[in-house]
Specification:
single chain; mainly beta; five-stranded mixed beta barrel; 8 strands; globular; 30% strand
């Protein structure tokens, strides 16, 4: 009797910029779509590794809606980076923000110096492999 083989095709895993989950501190946050441009499919996607923050601390005020802080004018307000891509096409969306840990910068968009300076508890490693 011939063996039957079932073939399962999985979607590609989400991009994860975190290198060492055991040494990380991350929290659930909400991010908004203000200033986020739509892609060719009309979707507003904030890429994993993008700095997010604002003038109100998400650690102190848990219902704060964060925004992208990856420009020289607002980079100093960065509070963390997104662990995964987040779709904000329809408005605010839940996300995971890395506050402390090691991040693979080769998987991140280019991060402005002001944001890297503000993120004192994140170590950016280029092409790290654990």
């Amino acid at each position: 009797m011939a063996q039957m083989v079932k073939r399962t095709i999985f979607d590609a895993p989400d991009l994860d910029v975190l290198l060492n989950p055991d040494n990380a501190f991350e929290i659930g946050v909400q991010v908004g779509n203000t200033g986020v441009s739509a892609d060719s499919n009309g979707r507003k996607i904030i890429k994993a590794g993008t700095p997010v923050g604002g003038t109100v601390s998400a650690l102190e005020t848990r219902n704060t809606v964060l925004s992208v802080t990856n420009t020289s004018s607002n980079g100093a307000n960065a509070q963390g980076v997104l662990r995964h891509d987040v779709d904000v096409t329809n408005g605010n969306a839940n996300a995971t923000m890395i506050v402390r840990g090691e991040v693979d910068s080769s998987k991140c968009p280019t991060i402005v110096t002001e944001a890297k300076t503000a993120l004192t508890h994140i170590i950016f490693v280029n092409g790290g492999a654990y």
